[in-house]
Amino acid sequence: MLGLHLQASCIISCFFSIVISILWIYTEPIFIWLHQDPRISKTAAIYLGNLIPGLFAYGFLQNILRFLQAQGIVMHLVWFSILPIGTHFGIVYGLMNWTSIGLKGASMAASISLWMLCISLAAMHCAVSRIDAKFNISTSLIAMCVNTETIAFMFTCGLGAAASTRVANELGGGNPQKAKNAMVMTLKLSTILTLAIGLTLAFGHNVWAAFFTDSSLILHQFASIIPLLIISITFDSFQGILSGKTTCGKGCGWQHLAVWVNLVTYYFIGIPIACLLGFVLQLYDKGLWIA
């Protein structure tokens, strides 16, 4: 079933990549219609036009990444990512400095690197699927939890992006109190959304889980992990507002602080705890989600 979901998600990603590509092709007239500078509009159109091949690779890549992460395959992703990332620097430097294509080289290099990474991970997926033909219950539970929290985080991400822009504008205009009020209001809205999502999962988890599986055993196990899932969604909603990629912290110019917070909590705290609880203490899916 996971393989079928992967194929379906790749088809959907391809469809939306085509839609986005059409918009990118007409970037220049769209930007001019939005009253942007004609030179900037033309440059953006050139860059995005050469980035279109990479858009399709990026769509496939995100699906394959989620597919492999749901199976607990992490270190393989790291090793298979080193080669494309390493070659990306050489490709972008060579295209931009040793050729006359200039800015086009940056987007072309990104497209080439994305396809290299996509192909390498797809090859690894084929190898893994032959070795591990049967996926255990923990794999299914982690996949369901990841998808559930990702969907919940989309709401917070939208609020964080809006708050980041508002906070930056107010601080730039010399209105720190308005910036503070914007952040407080965003946190209140995030709390309301999180409460609604938590109640929905608490009382309707069987209905939600039925969208993913019809196995009674997995449905029962998913019900037992719901409290942990609600807790992680709650904390993630505040984290998404305060220290994520599009947040109030970014609007305040605290990107360096947010980077260190995410780096330390994920790599130096989260991963070691996940290894300890998930594998050493053999809590498996619950141990990974606690971490």
Layout: helices, strands, pairs:
Layout: H1 2-25, H2 27-33, H3 38-69, H4 75-97, H5 103-131, H6 137-172, H7 176-209, H8 216-242, H9 248-251, H10 255-280, H11 285-290
Helix pairs in contact: 1-3, 2-3, 3-5, 4-5, 6-7, 6-8, 7-8
Keywords: Membrane, Transmembrane, Transmembrane helix
GO molecular function: antiporter activity; xenobiotic transmembrane transporter activity
Transmembrane segments: 6-26, 46-65, 77-96, 108-131, 151-168, 189-211, 217-238, 259-284
Task: Compose a concise summary of this entry.
With 291 residues, this protein is an all-alpha fold. It has helices at residues 2-25, 27-33, 38-69, 75-97, 103-131, 137-172, 176-209, 216-242, 248-251, 255-280, 285-290.
Radius of gyration: 22 Å
Instruction: Supply the number of helical segments.
Output: 11
User: What order do the helices and strands follow?
Assistant: HHHHHHHHHHH
Beta-strand segment tally: 0
Which range best describes the helical content: under 10%, 10-25%, 25-40%, 40-55%, 55-70% or over 70%? over 70%
| Total tally of structural domains | 3
Average predicted local confidence, pLDDT: 77
pLDDT under 50 segments (min length 5)? 131-135
Largest sheet: none
Family: Belongs to the multi antimicrobial extrusion (MATE) (TC 2.A.66.1) family.
Keywords: Membrane, Transmembrane, Transmembrane helix
Protein name: MATE efflux family protein
Transmembrane segments: 6-26, 46-65, 77-96, 108-131, 151-168, 189-211, 217-238, 259-284
